[in-house]
Amino acid sequence: MDKKTIFAIIIYVVIAGIIIIVKPSIIYDEEKDEFKKFGFGDEKSLLTIETVLIGLAIFLGICVCLLSNDKNKKDNIKGRNNDDIEKELNFYKNLVKSYVSNS
After folding, report:
1. Which residues of 74-85 are buried (b: 16+ CB within 10 A; e: fewer)?
2. Mean pLDDT over residues 61-80, rounded?
3. Could you tell me which residues are beta bridge partners of residue 38?
């Protein structure tokens, strides 16, 4: 695993721990001393501990992917010069022209 993934896991564990310790009233029923169940009603909530933690995991996963892709793009562009980029652009232009002329 790379550093960004490990960092995301650490952030996830810390935020999940904070949520479990703080027990926000939107996901925790203080009268019953337990987390609310999923559903509608007084003793239920659409934001359960499970949905919050799954949403947090998805959010952090997307952040790691975006940060990793950004780095890869920069690394790929660094090693290329303008001639290589121009050749590639001409290749795609010719490809589009041949496709349009055959249609």
Report:
1. eeeeeeeeeeee
2. 66
3. 45
